[in-house]
Amino acid sequence: MRTVRAILRRAATVRSAADLKRRVSSLPVLLFKIAASRHGRKAWSRNTARLVEAARKAGELKPEPGKKKIPPYRIFWSWDLNSSCNYGCPYCFYSSKDDSATLFLSPRDWGIIWRNIYKKYGRCRISVAGGEPSVYPEFPGVISAIAGAHSVEVSTNLSFDPEKLAGKVDPGMLTLNAGFHPLYAGFGDFLEKAGKFSAAGFRLTVSHVAYPAHNLEKIKEYMKEFNRAGIPFIVQPFRGVFRGRRYPDSYSEDEREILREAAETEQPLDERVKVSRPPGAASSEDVNRALRRHNLLKRKNLHKKCRMGQMYAKVYPDGSIYRCCAPDARKMGHIADPGFRLYGTPQSCESLECCCYKRMRAGEESEWMRFWK
Fold first, then answer.
1. CA distance 53 to 56
2. What share of the chain has pLDDT > 70, as a percent?
């Protein structure tokens, strides 16, 4: 506790631009974790605001208007708010229940941090996910605190009360990407929640994984009901092994027909959703080819110039920022550091092979711009 007070007291004594620069450059991530504790939260809010204001006066937060002239013409962030989830879907790669490394801050503190980002780069698009972000403490308040300055979309299982979020956030500031998981949610209850958000004016898209253990015939019913409600519905074929059989190759012809029908009747929310779904699917092989695109796109990538880290960044639950989501991506800093900056120019890729179809390779904008709308 003595250490906590000493660090916070030191942060509160910033006197000049030179002093700020020296302190920010050496500010340990430990401060952010300590500040999120029960003892440090109130002092953290006060001193973070002080640091941000001092940085602004010192010229450290001067916006970079040049970013708006660089494709895709605004900054995109992927933010995993937490690691834990209240579901345990067998087809999900993110099945952790451990939030021990997650950075827990109040809505006010997150608002200060993302306003800092706004002052540097203007209005950004932030994709919030997890884990399941709605289990994060004061989740509605956190989203409300950042949605005013930025365009926000949240990937969620809709396991929370819609009124808790609808009453805090302007519908025009938020998009919901809702996942329907029959192993944990009844269809009627999920449809009712989705309908409440849609009726309140929120942009909403529902996705569903065609897991072999599900009754895939019910997808037809889901399509009918969501179309009736005017809610875009996307079916994602399962990729993985189930009972010793590899998918999507092992779907039966009847199951493939259901997937083709779903792909052809989707009502996309906008162009960004439209291009994210499997294209066309006029044959069985088309379905498989669309779903294997990540593997097919693997090719030599080392040292190629990429705008990831310049126009996009990935924020992990502990607040660490990486230039992209690749396993060997370069760490850039911490989201709560007032002095953090994105790269000013495209940087060489650290990955020997890149399987991301949305990668921002410099000079190849025609291949990826449609994914960043």
1. 5
2. 71
